[in-house]
Design a protein that fits this description.
The chain is mainly β and 117 residues long. Helices cover 12% and strands 38% of the residues. The chain has two helices and seven strands. The strands form two sheets. A five-stranded antiparallel sheet has the order 3-1-5-6-7, covered by helices on one side. Strands 2-4 form a two-stranded antiparallel sheet. It is elongated. The termini are close together.
Length: 117
Amino acid sequence: RKVGFKIKTTSPEKYRVRPSSGILNKGQNVSVELHLTGQNAPMTLVRDKFLVTVIYLDDQDVSNARLQDLLKSTKPEAQYRLRCQLASEQGSIASPQPGRPGFSASPALPPADDTAK
C-alpha cells in the first residue's frame, strides 16, 4: 500500500529537509537529508525536534499538490517523533565539545504504528 509522508521541524529556520514530503510504494525506502543552516550553538540543537507524519494513499496517481492537501486534511496513520542529539566523530552520543561536534537525530519515542514503515 502506498504511503505519503511529511517531515516537520520545531526549528525550520535552522534546517533544510530534503525531501520534506513524498510518496513511498510498499517496500520502498527513501533517504532524507537534514541540512543545518548557519552558525548554531551546539547546546541549542539538542532542543530541536522533528515529526514524521504518515498517511495511507488509496489513489495510485497523486500529484505533489494533492499530497500536500491530503497531509493537511487526513488523520495521520502514524507519527514518529525524533529529537536531536549531539554525536561524536565515531557516531556515538557524546557531550558537546568545542570545535565541530557531530549531529544526529534519534527517535524520542517508539513508532505509534508499525504498519506505516
